[in-house]
User: Fold these one by one.
Assistant:
Number 1:
Amino acid sequence: MKYLLILILSSILLSGCATTYQSSGFSGGYSETQLDENVFKVAFRGNGYTGRERVADFTLLRSAELSLQNGYKYFVVIDANSYTSNSTHTTPTRSNTTANVYGSGNYAYGNATTTTYGGQTYNISKPSSSNTIVCFKEKPENTFSYNADFIYKNIIKKYNIKQPAN
């Protein structure tokens, strides 16, 4: 029982924060699938505390990071999707009644007070985003492309993400 309580409390504490830039896990994160030598599908899934802008930025960040890791300088987003899964959570209801009774002769008098706690319903929205990207070594002409190094550095700076040591 003690271990179950610790596990539940740990889960609550971990889920109480916006999703960080991390590989996909319990509270969200990024994932990718390589579709061709220079084509990737990149996704980022947030939790209930993560905003849509953060999810979109982290999807771009992972796209830039994958491009650079594979020796490419630029990438083009050829397909993008963003969506939000919505759910609700209702807290349990609990009632407590306090009563006082007193008597006088053949009569009894009293009062009772009932207080109810809980029963709140919370809406939970979990944003997600995905990009299918094509990576290039040279800047492609006649199409909008992202500079992977520029995107990487700026989003790292925006969210104060610590860069891994090389």
Number 2:
Amino acid sequence: MQATELALDVIARAGQSKRYIIGLAGAPGSGKTTFAAELCQALGAKSETAVVVPMDGFHFDDVVLNARGHRARKGAHYTFDAPGFVHLIKRIKARETDIAIPVFDRHMELSRAAADVMVPMRLSSIR
């Protein structure tokens, strides 16, 4: 499915909802981040506001992964702080404002806590 097609489907499913949350899933390196950006752009072209909140910021640090013997499987479900991500989604759903979110820094190969802030209806570009 193309981002423009999915954008139309999201708009239809959202109906009159003030906030509609969708999730993209796939294997590591499968293009989720790229597709999410395309979907955001496609929704913007339809006068909708969209925010990408990546789960990458919830990667466990390599020190933790090495200690657990999981470094070789980085990206597998057990190499993330999934409960932390769920808590973030609950905060978004509750319409909290100025929510600090972690961002995965690919140059440093680690997550940076509170590296971005999700403000009402937009994500800042502090990265």
Number 3:
Amino acid sequence: VPGSGGLPALNHTSQGAQRWIDLERHPDTSTALKALKAEDYACYAAHFSERAVDFRSVDYTRPTALVLGTEKFGVSDEALALCDGEVIIPMAGMTQSLNVSVAAAVILYEAQRQREDAGRYEPRDPSEPLQRDLIERWVARDLARRKLPLPDDDSLAD
């Protein structure tokens, strides 16, 4: 339910990405950011402020979490306090910000570019334990997904 503070149980807009990632739910933003920081993630908020730096100046080759707020209210003060820094996408003209999904895409594209330049996307041997585990988990998820009954026409209208 939009605005209820929770994630929907199933979202078909991800184009199957849910089969490639593990989603870990947290009761609130603070708990999630603290868990990421405990795992040595750098946490940056996309937030228009005096301390914000150009999003391209951040090193995304290390484990990094990006916090994006709502388009109307931005990132909460609580989340900002837990972040290592703030980034902005420099804009020209009358508009000061992009739609949140576009901003996420632009920043994630920069992260992908930096990681590719650093050689992070070289082909990997599928027999390596980490790659083998990813493949096995994907196959298990895909097989489980295929065993589910197809939704009826009425549930598609919801």
Number 4:
Amino acid sequence: KSNVIDVDAIAAVIKQQRAGVAAIQEVDVYTKRSGNINQAEQLAQKAGYPYYYFGKAMDYDGGQYGVLILSKYPLSDTQTHMLPKSDPNKGEPRVLATATVTLPNGKAFLFGSTHLEAYNKASRMMQAKEIVRIAGETRLPFVAAGDFNAEENSDVIDVFDEHFVRTCSSCPSTFWEGGETGAIDYIVFRKGDALKVLLHQVVQNKEASDHMPVIAELQFN
């Protein structure tokens, strides 16, 4: 439904995919526009994720707005990194939320959820480079997912491709809005990390959001 945020529908789609970890964008916590609910907490509960971390991008409408990490596994060292923009006074604040995910076998990786600038390419480029820099600071394998607001063969995706492996090439479309489609949501991991892509798919669900769920299965080598 347009202009209706249906937490149950979104949670059902997330639950159906049975992902170990998930990156969610455009999450409201106690905003008036979303009925003063904690979407982060509700999505975690309804989708069956015992662990979650909300990364606030900004205060908004009496509450907070940002990105979310959901996890079946314990999270530690959670952090919200403010991303740069070309004009500090213009444009929506953007963040990368990160958390260390520890799997039952003891292996760990750093997971990031992000939503890059939509309208200002210079800002989007700065944000891509900052994510590359943050990834370079950890010894753990680094995986990031989210809405990069950039299509394949763009300068921004070229920056990611220099330093990361995308789980798809010639990626299927991930959003539909006013007749527009394209691949702008990605899952990436740092080059050289001992990870292998077993699967990449876009789930054809247009009911819960104007972006479709992007799924990747990664294996530790």
